[in-house]
Write a structure and sequence with these properties.
The chain has helices at about 1-5, 15-30, 40-50, 70-75, 95-100, 110-145, 195-200, 245-255, and strands at about 10-15, 35-40, 55-60, 80-85, 105, 150-155, 160-165, 170-175, 175-180, 185-190, 205-210, 210-215, 220-225, 230-235, 240. It is of the alpha/beta class.
Length: about 260
């Protein structure tokens, strides 16, 4: 199943049977290509593109019914696949690139020229897929983050980490990022402490410094530091500076100063 999902779904559109056969033969030599259909005219090509949603189309410029440019106009930019125009007439080249064609094959072409066009098409198809995945992930992250205070979603080395807020020991600011400390490990996320504080449950997370937020469940005690200030001591022995402006809330939470 995974291998099928990575194949490039390809449509051939040309009103000449021999031309369609030639493209098919060359495509069938290639790995990772799935030919999903053939169209014998422009109107049929537009219908198949809308219905089959191919990744790639080898599209003749001059066809019965409507030409290749009108075919794409019928499809519309949102549904348009990656296109390689194929034609015997070079005067259409400039207009082809106005339609964002990845390449323009002038008949007759040899195997090497066809291979170069297909290589460029593959690259663009994969780029579009990756962009689509990134867009979906961004929307998913925004949706999940907006729904709950119980988790933080982090991007790390191409992965998405679902971090339960209950697992966080403490958080510190680090430049344009915030760093989460979790059971001896750390995770970075771009953002500000102010924005993060608004997302976290105020009954569980306490700001002790403009650059530090702690999980109240990890607190052990306050320790006198210097000049009337205190250090917050966590269950694992981590000591963090408590600024004077944040003392009242944490003292009330602990009940007493040890």
């Amino acid at each position: 199943m995974a291998a099928t999902e990575t194949r490039i779904r390809t449509l051939i559109a040309d009103d000449e049977p021999m031309a369609r056969r030639g493209v098919r033969i060359l495509l069938e030599r290639e790995s990772g290509i799935e030919i999903v259909g053939e169209a014998t005219g422009g109107i049929e090509a537009a219908e198949l593109i809308r219905r089959l949603r191919p990744d790639l189309v080898f599209l003749d410029v001059q066809m019965v019914g409507c030409d290749g440019f009108e075919t794409l106009m019928r499809v519309g930019p949102e549904a348009a696949p990656v296109v390689v125009f194929v034609t015997a007439y070079d005067e259409y080249a400039l207009r082809a690139f106005d339609f964002n064609a990845v390449d323009y094959l002038l008949k007759p072409y040899d195997d090497a020229r066809f291979g170069a066009a297909l290589s460029r098409a593959r690259e663009l198809v994969m780029r579009k897929r990756n962009d689509a995945v990134d867009t979906r992930l961004t929307r998913l992250i925004a949706h999940l983050e907006g729904e709950s205070r119980d988790r933080i979603l982090l991007k790390s080395s191409g992965e998405i980490i679902f971090l339960k807020t209950a697992e966080i020991d403490w958080i510190e600011a680090e430049g344009d990022y915030v760093k989460f400390h979790v059971a001896g490990r750390s995770h970075l996320m771009r953002g500000t402490m102010a924005a993060l504080e608004e997302r976290l449950d105020p009954a569980r997370f306490i700001r002790i410094h403009r650059s530090t937020i702690v999980n109240a469940d990890r607190l052990r005690k306050l320790s006198p530091s210097f000049e009337g200030e205190y250090a917050v001591v966590l269950q694992d022995g981590t000591k963090l500076r408590l600024s004077r402006g944040y003392q009242d809330r944490i003292k009330a939470l602990l009940g007493r100063v040890e």
